[in-house]
Specification:
Number of helices: 9
CATH topology of the largest domain: Rossmann fold
Structural class: alpha/beta
CATH architecture of the largest domain: 3-Layer(aba) Sandwich
Shape: globular
Distance between the termini: 87 Å
Largest sheet: 5 strands, parallel
Radius of gyration: 31 Å
Number of strands: 5
Number of domains: 2
CATH superfamily of the largest domain: SGNH hydrolase
Strand content: 5-15%
Order of helices and strands: HHEHEHEHHEHEHH
Helix content: 40-55%
């Protein structure tokens, strides 16, 4: 009986007022929520539109296999504090990042450029060393920019031609294009092998070994350690990047 009486008790004025206020607050909250939702959708749409052009571009993967000229971690013992191509004044000034900037500028309407790089100086000293898979699986352009740490006697006694050929085969997949340079520090024997590997396998070859003859291309006087100072300066890095970029353009390699 009490339950029925409670259920049938007429609502007082104060109760009606509370219900009205609660409804009003509820509609206000719903209104605010809808406004926020609409604004969020508009913001997401605008952000998507800003990058939508890139989303429709084909991805193009470039990978650099090199040595300290490509990447060297900090080493206080030799006065090197960078974590990029040795002797460059900053990451953006080494040949890798200069080249990528040139490529991005040229192909920004056609490709989304993704790149990776790895120093395999340990392989240069021992061709039998195990190398880990690269973080990029499908490589469109593989740039082989190494050889300086391969001792000539070791190269002669351990079939440098086959070792370099096998290294490239390990990472290239059809239709990966390959660019090989010769050595920044000239070596008649090694330069000839690197060029022959390129020519005999239908790869592309870029000459850079003449750059070392111009002292402004090296960082002499910028570092106390002679080994560091022998590396390309910012000017040298720019010239290496330009050589490779001009060759890419002349031969329509990126397409």
């Amino acid at each position: 009986m009490n339950d029925r009486q409670d259920a049938g008790t007429p609502a007082t004025a104060s109760t009606v007022e509370k219900v009205s206020v609660n409804k009003h607050m509820f509609y206000n909250v719903i209104g605010i929520f809808l406004c926020v939702l609409v604004l969020s959708c508009n913001e997401s749409s605008e952000n998507g539109n800003e990058g939508s052009e890139n989303l429709y571009l084909k991805k193009y993967n470039i990978y650099f296999l090199g040595n300290s000229i490509t990447l060297h971690e900090p080493n206080e013992g030799i006065g090197w504090n960078g974590n990029w191509g040795m002797a460059a004044s900053a990451e953006e000034n080494d040949y890798v990042h200069k080249l990528i900037k040139k490529i991005e500028g040229e192909y920004e309407k056609k490709f989304r450029i993704k790149y990776g790089l790895k120093s395999i100086a340990n392989w240069e000293r021992d061709f039998s060393v195990g190398l880990q898979p690269l973080e990029i699986n499908e490589i469109d352009l593989l740039i082989i920019r190494l050889g300086e740490n391969v001792l000539e006697e070791y190269a002669m006694n351990n079939n440098y031609y086959d070792a370099l050929s096998e290294l490239i085969e390990k990472y290239k997949k059809n239709p990966t294009k390959i660019i090989i340079t010769d050595n920044y520090w000239p070596s008649v024997f090694k330069d000839a092998i690197q060029k022959n590997v390129a020519i005999n396998n239908g790869y592309f070859f870029v000459q850079i070994n003449d750059l070392y003859g111009n002292q402004e291309n090296s960082a002499f006087g910028q570092f106390e350690h002679s080994g560091v100072a022998m590396h390309p300066s910012d000017i040298g890095m720019e010239n290496i990047a330009r050589r490779i970029f001009e060759y890419i353009m002349e031969n329509n390699i990126i397409n």
